[in-house]
Amino acid sequence: MTSPTIGRLRVDGATLHYEVRGRGPLLLLIPGGAGGAASFDGVADDLAAEYTVVSYDPRGLSRSPLDDPEAQQRVAQHADDAYRLLELLSPGAPARVVGSSSGAIVALDLLATHPERIERVVAHEPPVVEVLPDAAEHRAMLARVQDTFRREGLMPAVAVFAAGLRRPGDDPVDAHAATELPPQATARAERTMADMPYFIGRIVPSFMAYAPDLDRLKALSDRLVLGGGADSRGELPYRPAAFLTERFGTELIHFPGGHTGLSTHPAQFGEVLRKVLST
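^ that's the sequence the OP posted. Answer follows.
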């Protein structure tokens, strides 16, 4: 794996850690969950053959500390962070943007607020559950997650959250289950777990309450590719992408694996990504 060039960018209320690989048109990768820039390690080098690939740790995660550790998090502010990176690294030239999960929510807001800076957005399973007809059920689930987090702690809350994302009838996931990981992946997993309280406590409730401007996104839908996991049909994070493509009259692109296909099937995921970025 190629060592990236590391940069730091001061933004309002935080300092962002970002990584740059390759040469060519700018491709900004916005991670989801608590994974940070490392979420894209499996695809970044291949993409760097065609693009200047920029990945980063969103504010509050890993190597991007907040000035105020208790600051409330808002999608609009995270989207402004992404915009500041575009302004720094691709001034004046429209860029391509890929977002996964909560990062895909940021990518949608970035497209809606700064379309002049965007050539194409690929949003993989943005969990914008407020667009769904049964949004009230998911609001109640998210409230249970926060209540469990306050009363019982992190892992019970993660278990409630994971249960709320599954298809009805799927087997429960053991939030404590351990798997054998290579050293680099182990270090990444440890960093992710260290960031999990911030993700569950601050990102999940704010981001999953976000309601995108559907009329605005429909008007920009020729620049928007919505993706879902081939193995996650019917799961909660998949459903908004399917709903939006139907609403916009566009095609839902299926990526290998499920919601975390970027990590479980990186080579195949990267292949599909290259195709949709270039068409």
